[in-house]
Inverse folding.
């Protein structure tokens, strides 16, 4: 291989099957690398013709911290919405396996409103960040104006320049709703705040596709909200008894559990009187007596794709840009009753 300055730290790391962080530390004589491995890295770097840029022109690789930040909007990080803590644990474990540590920072509503850049970026504490949970597009643009080493997780925007990892909510909701219809249900309502997140919107669109294909009535005006504009769960306004549907398709399992609780309070039994489905296969608390029919998208798969994407992005390795979809599977439990005509 010719000796040029085009050799990257990631090229050396790939040859030795180690992380870019390890190579950077070895070449900079920093702690955390064994003597034998340090020697091997330096010898290979010299053989491949790697030359560090001068201090007057530092590269991003010369400032590697070994940390990846996880930015989570504060409104999605409460006892009633701890799904993001659940995902964060899988992310941090996956990144640690790849020799990166995680730093979590909560984004307050005020910081998002005032367009304040996350502190971990300001203080150069991370090599890149994963934004977990829906934030406003203008805030993403604010970050992108000065910092591009980030990806979006569990949501996306209509701008293709932003790399993202999200669930295949549309198709999975379509399959889930189709199952409910196959069980004989025709009067079905969707539960979720359409304006809250891109994932809820996609889940409604999948619900709508299944309904329309089966020539069943569906309207955006019939959506039943489950949370307020800040993402906090509300007392779900179920229909009156005489107009109760035979089934509810809920945008997640927490909402499904809340619907079941409300139905029980009103004297309805699930699934004997009304069927209910969820999404995510995750409940932090408030488990209903019957198991919820839901969609399961493995968090290990999501974490693996997200970790791979952000690491390739910050180390300059080739990767597929744009939106990355993670699919799942239908889990059939007790909360849907088969209706015989």
């Amino acid at each position: 291989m010719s000796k040029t300055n085009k050799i990257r730290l990631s090229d050396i790391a790939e040859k030795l099957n180690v992380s870019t962080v390890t190579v950077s530390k070895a070449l900079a004589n920093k702690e955390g690398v064994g003597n034998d491995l340090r020697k091997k890295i330096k010898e290979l770097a010299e053989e491949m013709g790697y030359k560090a840029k001068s201090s007057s022109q530092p590269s991003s690789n010369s400032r590697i911290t070994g940390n990846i930040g996880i930015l989570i909007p504060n409104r999605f990080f409460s006892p009633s919405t701890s799904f993001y803590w659940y995902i964060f644990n899988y992310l941090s474990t996956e990144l640690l396996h790849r020799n990166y540590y995680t730093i979590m920072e909560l984004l307050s509503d005020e910081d998002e409103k005032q367009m304040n850049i996350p502190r971990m970026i300001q203080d150069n504490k991370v090599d890149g960040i994963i934004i977990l949970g829906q934030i406003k597009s203008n805030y993403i643009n604010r970050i992108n104006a000065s910092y591009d080493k980030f990806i979006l997780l569990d949501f996306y925007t209509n701008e293709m320049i932003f790399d993202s990892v999200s669930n295949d909510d549309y198709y999975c909701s379509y399959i889930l709703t189709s199952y409910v219809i196959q069980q004989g249900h025709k009067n079905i309502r969707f539960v979720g705040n359409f304006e809250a997140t891109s994932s809820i919107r996609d889940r409604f669109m999948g619900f709508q596709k299944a309904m329309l294909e089966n020539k069943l009535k569906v309207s955006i005006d019939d959506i039943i909200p489950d949370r307020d504009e800040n993402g906090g769960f509300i007392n779900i306004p179920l229909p009156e008894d005489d107009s109760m549907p035979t089934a509810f398709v809920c945008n997640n399992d927490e909402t499904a559990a809340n619907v079941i609780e409300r139905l029980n309070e009103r004297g309805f039994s699930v699934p004997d009187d009304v069927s209910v489905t969820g999404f995510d296969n995750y409940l932090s608390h408030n488990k209903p007596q019957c198991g919820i029919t839901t969609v399961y998208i493995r968090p290990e798969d999501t974490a693996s794709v997200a970790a791979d994407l952000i690491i390739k992005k910050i180390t300059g390795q080739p990767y597929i840009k744009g939106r990355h979809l993670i699919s799942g599977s239908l889990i059939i439990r007790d909360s849907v009753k088969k209706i015989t005509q």
